Amino acid sequence: MSIDPGTASALAPIIRAVESSVIIYMLMLNSFYALTILLAIPELLKHWRIGADENLRLLRGADVIPPVSVLVPAFNEERTIVAGIRSFLSLEYPNHEVLFVNDGSNDGTMQALIDAFDLYEVPPSYRTIVPTATVKAYYRSHVHTGLACVDKENGGKGDSLNAALNAARFPYVLAVDADTIIEPDALLRMARPFLLGERVAAVGGTIRVANGSAVDAGRVLMPRVDSRWLPGIQTVEYLRSFLFGRLAWNRLGGGLIISGAFGLFRQEHLLAVGGYQTGSVTEDLDVVVRLHEYLRGQGSSDRVTFIPDPVAWTEVPVTLRVLRRQRERWHRGLIATMLQHWHMMFNPRYGRVGMIAFPYFFFGEMLAPIVELIGYMTFGLSIALGIVDFAYARLFFSAALGYGVLTSLWAILLEQVSFRKYPRRRDLLRLIWFSILEPFGYRQITALFRVEAFFHYFRGSLHWGEMTREAPRDEPPVRS
Amino acid sequence: MISSTVVLTIVAFQLLLIIGIVWWLLATQGRSRHHDEAEAHAMDLLREPLQAFLIHGGSSEPLAAALAKLPPAVAARQIQVMGGSMLGEEQMTDLALRVRQDSWVDETLEQGTSRHWWKRMEAARLLVMVCSSRDQPLLAKLVTDPHPAVAAAATAAVGRHAKRALVVEMVRRMPRLPPTVRLQQMHGLRRHEWIVTPLVVDALDGNLPAADLQVMVRFGEILGTYAVLAAIVRLAAHPDGSVRASVARALRSAYVPGAAEAARMLLSDPDWRVRAAAARALEGLQVTAAVPALSAALRDPQWWVRFRSAVALAGMGERGRIALEEAVVGEDAFASQMAIHVASLSEANRLDMGG
Fold this sequence. Notes:
Number of helices of chain B: 22
Shape of chain A: globular
Structural class of chain A: alpha/beta
Strand content of chain A: 15-25%
Oligomer: heterodimer
Number of helices of chain A: 16
Structural class of chain B: mainly alpha
Shape of chain B: extended
Largest interface: A-B, 55 and 53 residues
Distance between the termini of chain B: 69 Å
Radius of gyration of chain B: 29 Å
Distance between the termini of chain A: 57 Å
Number of strands of chain B: 0
Order of helices and strands of chain B: HHHHHHHHHHHHHHHHHHHHHH
């Protein structure tokens, strides 16, 4: 394609202006990341020091920590549900119940549970505070008194969580995904704010990548880093996101995200905000934003906080097709939540959430893939127009990519000096390798998936997309 | 635009940082391995004297000598493990007396005055294991530490080692503590009930603000002494609903004169939290005379009161069960629905829900 010199010289100042804007945006965003890295360090040290086993021993004594209802919504999880429910029931916690909600599964999920836990039907007499799809039956177990099951018509994840919320007996609820593997002491660790006498409305824990790890009977026996590039890079991505991304928000007034796969909430707050939004594809993000809004409105000092050492493991996509669905959905949910709560933007009424968290999630998360794509496009255009300074571009890309690698390595370092979930040298080398690999292709691909979310959002798509899961690899533990 | 020199400098700096972090990562992993090896070595060193002491009833001297050979931090951790899950109280006392003079113990306990809370916490954890009468000032300091993790860690030593002055001070500070530390200290102070009981009775009979009174009612419930429970019963008509709710909760196991009457009275309280707790108390005290009142409470507008009343009826023997069956076929839809729900539960499930 040939472009006449007149057009090129006319376009050059526009392209340079766009490039400068992208660079300024990148600099500001990276400076904010640097700030989060610094803020995360004292938070991480605090939790690492206090998270030692001796303190957990103190917590294990019943009566000192609040009882918790574990909410487990599920749709077509026949293959894994029994092991999952067993692991939730065997959490090391003095007083907890497990509330399973069958969201109109059309496989044998409900029957598998009836058989495994000797369930019997009881008339569903509980408060229906949040309206949900029709409840078909309510079961309790002859084997485990701490298990209750709600069988209902299909209504989506938010609707199932609302059904569980109605049936929950205890003042705190832990929302989990049915296929999440929670470490046995994770719930106990999540109760730490109560030990410290902090007023909390919600507590988030860390999600780690289970792919490649040896899993047996709903327990991760030996954490490992998957050797395949896609789950491997996501392992680094999750470390970065949880070990300093979310931790730093504790010092910035509380983040907007508590993972739907592993989050502890005060039940009365969730009921006060009307439960989970049923039409949302990211009900976890939406509910935390509404919770912040509610807390500020009530003048409550209860905080939304994140603790790094309670760990839950999840399987991440291993194919680009599934990753695309997941990331597109996440981003579509982010766009919807940001636009729905637009009034919070730079609104001092919402304190630091309105002045820092909301603007960051809008400019730094929601718009980031668009800015990144514009950056690549203008670079391509300047090559086509012959106005690119290659020496400068090479250096600039090195700096940008180097920064990405640096932040990933820093997250791995924080992990190694604190919780050390990956003691094998081979896993450490894999983490370093995937940190270096991430900026070359993966980052650009996921940016594209996220840009796609804008198109789907404005077309009004509410599709969730399916998560195709691998069978957990039950391998014997190996000597490190 | 940023000049190429600046970008080049940034690139070079980043490269250096990347190399530095990778080196640090590898070194950290090496250090962690070394640390694991040191712990394993410590366990090897302690195994024989521990077995001799634990199983064969030998002297604690070889074990104390082995601990003294370890780095202070490792020795402190090992003695915590032993004290926490292996040694009985007498054995721990014997070992504590033996190691109390060792320099590694002094070294760790000196951290109790550190300005870093985590160091004070380490001192508190060790103090729980080796506390003696001469450690009273340090125990008082740590148990009243402003950091809840330190105070919580030191609380385990209160039961065996706190003297009267410290106990009195702890009771005085009780309403101001974070909830969990407070509960731990309440349990820890049960061993000093002859000191604590009159203090709590005075507090309950005094003019404390409602929030403080609730704390003292809870403390009284945990203490469970006759005088304290009688003082709690006297609060059943307190004007504050939260206090009455705490009283109703405490009545569950208050086997003292007037408790049953108080629980029956609270079942018709204007505050639904009080009514729900009173229903539970009536079951706990097995007040069968309250069956008609509990049957009436099945029609309460609040779900929790209906639920607690139904569970209470199901746990009150033949009379309660008959009342529940009558409610099943009764005219009130709310009462019938709740009675069907609770009557359908297995015995284990009902007990679990009543607990």
